[in-house]
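hey so i finally got around to running the thing on that chain from the lab meeting. sorry it took forever, my laptop kept dying and i had to restart like 3 times. anyway pasting the input first so we r on the same page abt which one it is
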Amino acid sequence: MIFSGVSWLAFSQQDPVLMRVNGKDVLRSEFEYYYNKDAASFASGYVAPEKYAERFADFKLKVSAAETAGLDTALSFREKVENYRNRLIKSYLTDTAVIENEARRLYDKMKAGHHAGRVRVSHIFKYLPQNVSGHALRKAIAGMDSIYEYLRRNQTPEAFDACVKRFSDEKQPFWVSWLQMPVEFENVAFELSAGEVSQPFFTPQGIHIVKVIERMEMPSFDDVKNGVEVCRAYRHGTDWGVEAQVEKLKKEYGYAPDKTGMDELIRTGQTKRTLFTLAGKNYTGNDFVRFAAAYPAGIRRQLDAFVMKTVLDYENVCLERKYPELRYQVEEYRNRLLLDKITGQEIQKRIGPDEAGLQTYFEKHRSDYQWRKQRYKGIILHGVSKRIVKQARKFLKSLPEEEWKDAIRLTFNAGAQPQIQAEQGTFASGDNVYVDDLVFKGKDAAPMVSFPFTAVLGKKVKAPDDYREVKDRVVTDYRNCLEKQWITHLRTSAKVEINQEVLKTVNNH
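ok and heres what got predicted. didnt touch it at all, straight out
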């Protein structure tokens, strides 16, 4: 239905309602999101908004049918949508510019210093627990000093490899990039030249003697940016991008700390006073207690984390309102899931077991499946002798085609040495060299080595006799037919209204 008039004068001039599907409004911005996103995949190039609007209305009708069927209420469905949203919102809750600048700073530092690139190392390593006894520690140090002295006198690759094999808790060489291993390990490894061996040194894991096997140059910033960001956050236990975003949001939402309440909390460990205000709402010591119960840490660290979580939680609630693109991304994912589910119920599950429906559809549209050139439907028989091939061909003539392969297997190939090799099907010119030779009079085909005598049995046909010969095409066509019937039913039982005046303004406002 096309509509206009006073009933639509109330819509927002900024983002007017473009259509109503089953009573639900679709804003112009939502339609534009889908239209512009799908534009790249239009098979025929440009599709006018007027034509796309009909497709989009059908899409919305199917989603509405899925909602009516309650498919959006399943726990697994809701969890999928929530997990997808959680992946998307990370970028909205992080100041990506701060992260990239920090990653660039670290990269430049790595490139300028000895930590550039990667080093492949082998090491003699003894693990030392944190509560190692003094006696065990002295014994480990003495052992490593003895190994180092031996290596200093025997500076051959074989000597170092032998010590690794005999004494080390870690036997395999490995690559080291900056921010990947403990600082103590990296400081030593990156200072060494290829082939050089370190003196014994400690890390939090134990005691090491390291040998650098080879070095690689520093990759480009774009290649290592993500890895640098992750490693820096892991090592320092903080995400500066999130912290920077929280500081921005504090200003945006009027964050105001209450010094009296915070001081009392830090001094006594508890308070009922207001700790801070955010977006006009007071957050008190009671709110903090509930958070702190699930976040064991010192009181100051708990308070900082509580403030950060409160700011991020509030922003999380506001994201879809602030960023329509995010809202439409999540909604699109949800709708596509629902579309797949309802289509599976209405179409796919019907096609699978519906052999009779496929055959009936094929019979009704048989003329659609005629071939432009004749094909050969039959069997190709390769035999060990001319007599065997002749016998097999004569025998198969008395049997239905669907029994041919079993007859060959049980009659001619039952013994230890098969006598016939058979190929059965429908062949176009060029599909099989023997059919081309014997049926379509093409090039002479070279005989098979073990089965040098060949004959064919069958006939030339202009079209398939059974839908299974062109099953993929029939399934696709039958599916499209069922979908058209479904859409017709949805259109008959639902109401679609499109505001043509608003539709004319798509991507032009």
